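Journal club prep — side note

Before the paper discussion, L.F. wants everyone to see what a predicted structure for a comparable chain looks like in token form. Sequence:
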Amino acid sequence: MKISQNTWNYLLMFLLIALMISGCSGIFPSPQAETPSPTPPPSTQMATQVPKPTETKMAEISETESTKDTSTPVPTATPYVQLGPDDWQTWPIIPSLSPEMMEVYQRGLELGRDPHVFSVIGDCQSSPTYFLSIYDEGRYTLSEDKAYLQDTIVWYAGSFSHLSITVKNGMTASGVLNPMWGDNELCESREVPVTCEVQMSNPTLVIISLGTNWLPATSYEQYVHYLSEIVNILLTHGVIPVLSTKADNVEGDYSRNLAMAQVAYDYSVPLWNFWAATKDLPNHGLDQSRDNVYLVRDGWDVRNQSALELLDSLRRQLMTIDLRTE
């Protein structure tokens, strides 16, 4: 019996998905494994969790912050400067927002996007089990010089532990655009995961952390194309895409980080340079015993804190816009 070309294509797609999922779940440690959990243990100095201020205007929050008696200065974003993608290794860890993204945020508010919500697109390393849920669960302690971050933990309460439809084992840039990676119970028929997640969680920001589960057959140009399509969808829905570099270099030439920088440059969207945040850690915070793909504990500490600092900086920049429109 002759098998059609379409049938071969579907069989190949299923095989690739199965390989990616098994590879990710087989390498990444579970919370119960003997390998130390990638998230910090519960702190003995638990931060008090304050209810999410869903009815509080941004102007009121800003006024409260400005009248606080604190000797710790709050970092301010540097002026927006668009560096070339080839220089991505010198890009700042925490980005400033372009004027275009300020306009996207305002349009998002008009569309009803929730300023207290962010979401994540990524593979198993973006699961809230390891990434950010500590801030919803109270398993953290802020040092004195980082106490200002508590306001952002309160502001985005609930988002830190949210399991996005677009976070799955083996998730790739093309998978985010494939209905096969969606949720049949939550998403419409044939709806792509990225659109479904926007409809479900209604975020103003989405952190895009992809690239480790790369396909050898996927060229640099194809990867840029997939990322650009994701960014376009988010921008159309009034959501700010926040691209992220990665600490690993499984592809061998950092082409996935270059692709992130290229798309960030093309669309003037913010880039969280996580690679730069880990460059002073031994082996970039990667576990040599697991093929330099997954982070060790110190790497996870940096990832969680850097992401919180990212959200804090973006929130403060967006609040200045909202104040001007009050």
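L.F.'s comment for the group: Strands lie at 118-122, 205-209, 240-244, 271-272. Keep this in mind when we get to the figures.
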